């Protein structure tokens, strides 16, 4: 199917899918715009260990959820769709996880070989170190918050966006998919980009990781690989 071509009347389903995309885009951009406007102040707040870790963690989590999570949650609520309808199910979960891990191997190897590897720290955000100093209960509950927002919702967000775009603009190719491509590019846009040799290689292996993860999701019709990758790989290096 051509993405750009002669205009034609959209079906009810196509209109619904486009509305879903607009909801996600508007909500995410509003949240990201708010963060960009006060980002310096927020960063200083998040790093200020003289302030209790909870308000810093919850504020940071709220901002992250607004950018990657709130939009897809609203779509599911409005459309009365379950998360399972976007691939959170048992069938092929193991295959999805293994496929996602394989997709990230070039990125992980690049991090190690380029000297960027500073230790494996899953679920590491700006307040994680202070969280670990606040006692076992705070550490456990706080880690669950991080896993939910930065792991589950961030990874699942890519899966849902890719799925909606794929439904709206289906392709017959096994290895090319508009939803996968757009979601992978979207992930790169939120990734620091440098145009020296190291930066370009970083860009390529990051694209391979995200595109591969999402193609695996398409083949397995299972999104747990995306969630696993963001909990144990993306936010761990």
Which descriptors would you attach to this protein?
237 residues, mainly alpha, 70% helix, 0% strand
Explained architecture:
With 237 residues, the protein is mainly alpha-helical. It has helices spanning 12-37, 39-47, 53-67, 70-79, 93-113, 128-132, 136-168, 178-189, 197-220, 224-234. The protein is globular. The relative contact order is 0.16. The mean pLDDT is 92.
List how many beta strands DSSP finds: 0
Radius of gyration over C-alpha positions, nearest whole angstrom: 19 Å
Enumerate the spans where pLDDT stays under 50 for 5 or more consecutive residues.
none
- Return the average pLDDT rounded to an integer: 92
Write the element-wise H/E pattern from the N-terminal end onward: HHHHHHHHHH
How far apart are the termini?
38 Å
Shape verdict? globular
**Biggest beta-sheet profile:** none
SS class: mainly alpha
Count, helices: 10
Strand fraction: under 5%
- Helicity, in percent? over 70%
Summarize the structure.
70% of the residues lie in helices and 0% in strands. By secondary structure, the protein is mostly helical.
Write the layout of secondary structure elements.
Elements (H helix, E strand, L loop, with lengths): L11 H26 L1 H9 L5 H15 L2 H10 L13 H21 L14 H5 L3 H33 L9 H12 L7 H24 L3 H11 L3
Helix pairs in contact: 1-3, 1-4, 1-7, 2-3, 3-7, 5-9, 5-10, 7-8, 7-10, 8-9, 9-10
């Amino acid at each position: 199917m051509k993405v750009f071509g002669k205009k034609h009347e959209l079906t009810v389903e196509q209109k619904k899918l486009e509305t879903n995309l607009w909801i996600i885009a508007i909500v995410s951009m509003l949240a990201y715009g708010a963060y960009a406007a006060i980002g310096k102040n927020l960063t200083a707040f998040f790093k200020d260990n003289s302030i209790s870790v909870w308000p810093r963690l919850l504020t940071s989590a709220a901002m992250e959820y607004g950018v990657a999570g709130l939009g897809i949650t609203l779509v599911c609520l409005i459309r009365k769709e379950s998360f399972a309808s976007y691939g959170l199910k048992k069938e092929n979960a193991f295959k999805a996880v293994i496929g996602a891990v394989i997709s990230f191997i070039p990125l992980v190897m690049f991090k190690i070989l380029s000297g960027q590897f500073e230790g494996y720290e899953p679920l590491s955000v700006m307040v994680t170190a202070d969280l670990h100093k606040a006692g076992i209960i705070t550490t456990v509950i706080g880690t669950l918050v991080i896993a939910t927002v930065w792991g589950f919702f961030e990874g699942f967000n890519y899966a849902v966006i890719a799925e909606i775009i794929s439904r709206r603009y289906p392709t017959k190719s096994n290895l090319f998919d508009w939803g996968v491509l757009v979601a992978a590019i979207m992930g790169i846009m939120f990734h620091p980009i440098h145009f020296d040799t190291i930066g370009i290689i970083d860009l390529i292996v990051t694209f391979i990781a995200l595109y591969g993860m999402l193609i695996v999701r398409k083949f397995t019709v299972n999104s747990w690989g995306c969630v696993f990758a963001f909990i144990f790989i993306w936010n761990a290096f």
